[in-house]
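User
New here, explain this?
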Amino acid sequence: MATAFKRKGSRIVARMDAQEREVVVNLLMQTRELLGGDDHASTGDPVQDLFASLDRDPVDPDEVASRDPALQRLLPPASRDDDQLAADFRGMTEDGLRRTKTATLATAISALGGDPSGALGVDLEHGGERVELDLGQAQALMRALTDVRLVLAERLDLRTDEDSERLHALVEEAQDLDDPRTLLAAYYDFLTWLQESVTLAVMG
């Protein structure tokens, strides 16, 4: 069973069994794929990334309108009142935002023993149950979990704090996780706890 992240010297340390790590890694990978995966991966060179973004076709407003609502949460409009402003801003910033998010997700995946290139599962030899992160990896995991939770929140139709509280009660009362919504709710609950623990460890 997972333990909360704690700061130990310059490292951020927790324990997660293979199944827990695999669940987290697979959710991180699915979120990265939703953002475009390797099509929007950072080259590591800011200049190259800039030229790559300039080479892309302008963002199609019709494509934006028909997007998966979860992707809309990850890439929200700059303005909900001015469509032209939102389109102009999206055209200038969306590719860079995708690259930043996919790079952050890839760092988090690797830190947990996953393969950002696309192979599901985790390297069971990657530290056993011990998860040991440097500060940069911990910060990446913290940000990446925010994006995964946004996706799950959309899938679960969470809009208010009351919705989240009802979801937590659903997980607490569940006898089994055969129901897909209950399983997603359990994942959301677990990732919320995990993110809180890594955030506290980073801040501490």
In short: Residues 47-56 have pLDDT under 50 and may be disordered. The longest strand covers residues 3-8. The longest helix spans residues 83-111.
